[in-house]
Amino acid sequence: MTSFKTYNFKGKKAIVRVDFNVPLAKENFEITDDKRMQAALPTINKILSDGGSIILLSHLGRPKNGPDDSYSLSHLTEHLQKITNTKVLFADDCIGAKAEKMASNLSAGEILLLENVRFYAEETKGDDSFAEKLANLGDCFVNDAFGTAHRAHASTTQIAKFFPNNKMCGLLMEAEINSAKKVMEESIRPFTAIVGGAKVSDKVLIVENLMSKADHIIIGGGMAYTFKKALGGDIGKSLCENDRISTCRKILSNAEKMGVKIHLPQDSIVADSFSATAATRVSESDQIDSGWTGLDIGPKASEKFSRVIADSKTILWNGPMGVFEMPPFEEGTKTVANAVAEATKNGAYSLIGGGDSAAAAKKFNVDLQISHVSTGGGALLEFFEGKILPGIAAIER
User: Fold this and answer.
1) Which amino acids are annotated catalytic?
2) pTM of the model
């Protein structure tokens, strides 16, 4: 694998796979959160400062039937030009004569943004012929799209084979890999994993894999109630995956054998309906009345979880503690976010997974106080599940 930091891009046309899958407002297609674009700037700036030019590949959304204006990367051109302070050209196709001509005429210091690669079914199928057409546009390949590293798609994986001596990970990808390895392979103990979200089924593999690494596993969110029911508790109308009860019992049993402490919420904020205006009260998490639903961890759980986090030297957080989007049920996630930030300030290394955890960190203004906030939720999850990420493997081999 070529080193991005030492590679000289002078006179080179660099094909850079980025993850510009950003949210757009439906009414005017304005970008509502540009953090993924901002995260790519160090890689972009390095190439341009070397005297190279850039051909950007990305997907946006999941278009089903070819070109669709609502998923067009043209909506990103103006903002990209603004944040890079560089001329940005746009090709309304990612392959074909027009894209080839624009790439061929690209001057040093310019950026060419190609249209959504997912407008072609060949992208998600990992088609070699499609990948080769993309590869023919440039001189080298840089994968800086950690958010899609778990997808064996043409522009993330197959394209790399056409650059046997000129393929590399960008600075964002390097940072993501290094932060993940720092947690899983170089963690300083005590290592605490905070796992939340709705379903056990979404996180069972990560919990099982973390048991060989972590000292403490904090479990919150809707998934906690399946664990509570597995222990014989009454959880009212709280979310429960009955087909995962035996899995939860097995996890709890194995954790005890391995000396890993699993922390479940002692109490919960419960509501009589799934609504921001619902009646609420505090209940023990295993004594929730019928008709009531646990939607956040309670004050006792928040205090206990905060103490565990404060004593930690390595922290992984993936998944909220409750329905933090609704103010009555945000306090548990907010408390955990603040605890992680405080522990980081006191010397712990903290990594927050993408998705809801990153959104919560931003909402509660702690995102800049975390060691690393990942841009790739799905990719990071699969990394922590112990899976090989094809987008990274294609660069390393």
Assistant:
1) 36, 199, 355, 378
2) 0.89
